[in-house]
Amino acid sequence: MRVAIRTIPQADGERVLSRWLSDRSGVLTDRDDLALAVRFSLQLLREKAPGRSVEVRIPPYGAAQVVEGPNHTRGTPPAVVEAEPETWLEVIIGQKSFAEAVAEGTIQLSGLRTDLQGFLPLWPLS
User: Fold this and answer.
1) Is residue 2 part of a domain?
2) Do residues 51 and 65 lie in contact, with contact meaning Cβ atoms separated by under 8 Å?
3) Residue 92 domain boundaries
4) pTM
5) Quick check: is 84 in a domain?
6) 8-67: pLDDT as tens digits
7) Is residue 1 part of a domain?
8) Is the residue at 16 inside a domain?
C-alpha cells in the first residue's frame, strides 16, 4: 500500500524555514512548526534528488526516499540517512555541513549513496 504524501505549500515551508534561519538560537519551539519544517525540507530534497535508493529518516516527523539508483520497495532499505530534526535543519540551511554532522555522529549513515553533500544545503532556495 502506498501512502500519499501531503505536499506542503511553499509559502508555509518558507515561513518556518525562514524563522529557523533568522532565530539565532536555532530552535523551533512549536512542535507543529518543527514538523512542518522537516517535512518541507524532505519535500525539497525529493525534488532536488529524485529517486528511491536512499531513505532519509527524520524521526518522528518524516522520511523520504531519494537519490537515483536501485529502487527500494519493501523491508529495510539498503541505504539509510538518519538524523534528529534539529540537526537536519541545521544542515539543510547550511548552518552545519553534512560532513560535520556525520563526523560528529549526529547524522548516521548506512549503505551506499548516502553521501548527500552534493544536494545540501537546500535552503535558502536559489
Assistant:
1) no
2) yes
3) 10-119
4) 0.84
5) yes
6) 888 888 888 877 777 655 566 678 888 989 999 999 999 999 998 999 999 999 999 999
7) no
8) yes
